[in-house]
Amino acid sequence: MLNHLDAQHLHYHIGKATLVGDISLQVNGGEILAIVGPNGAGKTTLLKLLAGDLHPQSGQVLLNGHPLHHHKPLELARHRAVMPQQASVSLDFTAYEVALMGRHPHIRGSETREDHHIVEEALHRTEVLHLREQLYATLSGGEKARVTLARVLAQQTPILLLDEPTSTLDLRHQHMTMQIMRERAKAGVAVVAVLHDLNLAAMYADRIGMIHNGQLEFIGTPDEVLTAANIHAVFGLAVEVLAHPTHQCPLIVPLATNGHVATPPEIGASAGRKVLADQRVTSAPHLG
Amino acid sequence: MIGKLAVWQATTQRYSRLFPVRIALLLVLLMILVFISLSAVSTGAVSIQRDVVFKVSIDAIAEKLHLDYDSSLDYTARCLPGQSCVQRDAALIREIRWPRVIMAGLVGASLAIAGTALQGALRNPLADPGLIGASSGAAVGAVTAILLGVNIGDVLHSDAPALARLTQSLFAFAAALITTFGVFRLARWQGRTDSTSLLLIGLAINTMASAYIGMATFISDIREVNDIVFWTLGSFAEIFWRDVYVVVPFTVLSVVILPFLARQLNLMTLGEAEAQHLGVNAERLRVICVALAAITVGVSVAFAGIIGFVGLVVPHLIRFFTGPDHRIVLPASVLTGAILMIAADLWARTVAVPTEVPVGIVTALFGGPVFLVLIILSRRGRS
Fold it and tell me: Has the ipTM of the complex gone over 0.95?
């Protein structure tokens, strides 16, 4: 498959602040990799490095074996789509026109009937087809996110990079979004999603990378990564990990005692760093 | 399922109907442009019948193309004092009126398309060719030439007044490019250009430029002040074919290249990073748009002086009617800019005969209220 993203020893700093320090990971077609971690851990920076928005000071990202910056912008746009945290549009385009922009990398000259069909299909899938004639700027945050998701889907790329795609969505549409990602993965697409909701990550991701202070602390299957000890170490929150009643995945329940939910993280003293060099390589997708 | 399909087909049809509608709009604008040009040529201190204007123009084109064509006009008729005659009218139409009207059209088109491209590329509806320093820089250059009294004529040992004007134009054009480049260079930081700081730096440079021009006006004698006023308020007086020939290639450059960037400019509204994700080289797009705007506006200002508001208002006016798609906004703003500038110049030279009002005053006089109305109307349309 021509959809393989390989990040090698990425390092990115601004001044003395290290935002991403020596992160390596791989994503293959057919899997969803969720990136989780506390605020300011470097999740978005990592995603920007993977997208090619930022250039790492050392290390590199290989897209199908070639460094990202060897690809021209248009070529890159046919390989990977990126869903931003928030998307604003500076002029009064309609929701439909915004979604149609996703077809840009494929359009030569003028858009065809097929382009329109793909966009309508995408808007229908993200349940915003009825809003297509409305001005994008007048939509609610969640509606904007779904239109943006439709734009990203209409780009029809073998790699999807999503930065908190569910943060503005209601419960139903959070799961709709993740189900769409599952469908895409099943069709062979490689998905990287920054997620805040650990339970969402647990239910839908094939692998989870947990980031803390610019380091990839843990990476592996949800069962391996989402342990009470790991979550306490990285998020500084006491949780209990249960078995999901209907799914084969962990269910994280925060524990609150005497009004204190947070205790300071103690990385060194807790379960320890689980990521080892060999584990990064061996934790291949467990999909057929 | 059938309902869904019907909805889909309806949308596709709506968007496939868009193209003929847009072509029709452009044709209508083109017809208005031709009509207003003929009206402008026929109107003036000496009024000429519109059919005479039309015939003389056709004759002139036929002559230029060496067509074998019999004119219905009698150019040999004797000219009597105090009466119009074909010979004198033809000279007026061909050598005075048409170059002036065409120059007004070219400058209007240049300012409008530059404004549209800048507003798109910088993602800022306030962007205007004047705001990136092109106009004020040009004025500073021209004023400097006036103050120093430099004249290419001195070098060429000629005292033709046109050479003094040409010197000022060259200074204006050079200064416009230097200023815009300076603004752009200052706004560039770590390999990319921040649109907001570009506009803020442009604002700062403009303030300095107007201080300089104010100071120059203060220390100049009356004759020099007249020249300076010409540059700062804009005018199409004393425009001849040789000026038109210089401006045409620059305007054509923008008008031909920019529409090819229309879809990329649309994507820029999503944000720079998002445009990049969709395959747009945002920095290159911005450099191209700013460079084209600087060149086109610089050469326009070099011949016509500063004419404000057209570059800012025309894009807003078009978007109000057509929506924001640059594929229609760019060509429509070319035609509309030309139409409005020809109309403004017509008004400027006929409202206070025998004197002329500077055309920059006219564009501001009408552009300001129109802009206000647009802002209020589009606010209503949104809520």
Answer: no
